[in-house]
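Task 17 of the worksheet. Students: predict the tertiary structure of the chain below and write it out as structure tokens. Keep your answer in the requested format; marks are given for formatting as well as content.
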Amino acid sequence: MNIFKHLLSSQSARTRVCTSYRASFSFFHFSSDASIQVHSPEQEVVIALGSNVGDRLNNFNEALTQMKKSGIEITRHACLYETEPAYVTDQPLFLNSAIRGVTKLGPHELLSTLKKIEKEMGRTKGIRYGPRPIDLDILFYGKYRINSEILTVPHERIFERPFVMAPLVDLLGSDIDDDTVLRWHSFSKNGLFESWEKLGGEALIGKDGLRRVLPVNNQLWDWSKRTSVMGILNLTPDSFSDGGKFDSVGSTISRVKTMISEGAEIIDLGAQSTRPMATKISVEEELDRLIPVLEKILELPEIEGKLLSIDTFYSEVALEAIKKGAHIINDVSGGTLDSDMFRVVANLSVPYIAMHMRGDPSTMQNSENLKYDDVCKEVADELYERVRTAELCGVPAWRMILDPGIGFSKKTEDNLDILMGLKRIRSEIGRKSLGVSRAPLLIGPSRKRFLGEICGRASAVERDPGTIAAITCAVLGGANVVRVHNVGDNADAVKLCDAMLDR
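Model answer:
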């Protein structure tokens, strides 16, 4: 039994609804000036985006902005794909993605709106399937099948195009969340999931000109190629591992050079302690610690081609650091400690690491925040809710990096369950959004207390062997980025894990 048939057999009530809509709202042929009356106040839509002329990512950002201004509320973003051109192959590589949204625009009004945006962004008729700064196509409109002289929804060829199907499937969950999504599955003979699998499914990613990428520092990062090592640089006097060790600019610069020479691709600067029971410092004090060091690091020749991440939960610190030249925001609170964080990150258009934590560093280890019935499921659900909130504030899923928060509001057994359950966490998130479940996954167990408890190592600096074991487990379990103090030894472990995974 294929997936779609299984879904239908397990949801007979929804099937009856789907059949009713097929009988009542299928549109067969209309003249170009026909008006389709939609009685529901809002319709859920899926719109595909493509660009291969000019600044492709900026074209996407501008198109999203114009869609929002035109009455399309964007609710979900697919991953971002760099793809080889189809049909007309002598042209630049495309960026492709898709969004889900809701609109009160009728289908032909929506088409007219998208065409207007394309024109305003410089699209001309040109050759069919040729280069274009932006291409906006309606993939689905509510539960309706539309066939007029100027609009066909769904287009009959979308199910044979991997560059369309990959982002389309990202917008769905493995669970069918409502009757509209069930209707979308019915548009394909065997359902969207099986149609995607017949094209090759996830096996296509990274092959045949279809790369899933994350934009950072004017690059497109394909995180599937190898695991990235993030080196930790604490600028705090009270860090649990190396507090006060790098409190001068000279010692900090020396440490950065060492980490880069040992294999760090990302340097994570933190000027606010997030150890258990830590007291928050002010925005001003955090900036006073951070900015002078950040400016000196950016002057280093060695930093060329590397990424700088800022470990902060303050939106003002995030804003200033990115303005100075940092590339990524790493927020241990997932936006819960500063209500302005998501809006600021959305405007900055930078990658955002959303970590799972309950409470704040001073309360995260209290008894209430340590209660889990199923830690992998609950972490996945709570982390997904933060990502959904960020998306609704304008942070696309294609800029997200997920961190389940090892050591933050977790007991020793919870940390172990997470390390052993990374695939489960992805799967639980994938029930609601396959796109979000495919985001890069960051794991940071370095020198954490649970390693000391298990290995009998009271001193944090004695926990490097345990860290290497935890990092090995994480990489083999699907982690894409590992955050560590001891870069050299862990970089070797990562290389070995990547080599085994390649085999």
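Marker's comment: The first strand starts at residue 43 and ends at 51. Residues 70 and 281 are 42 Å apart (CA to CA).
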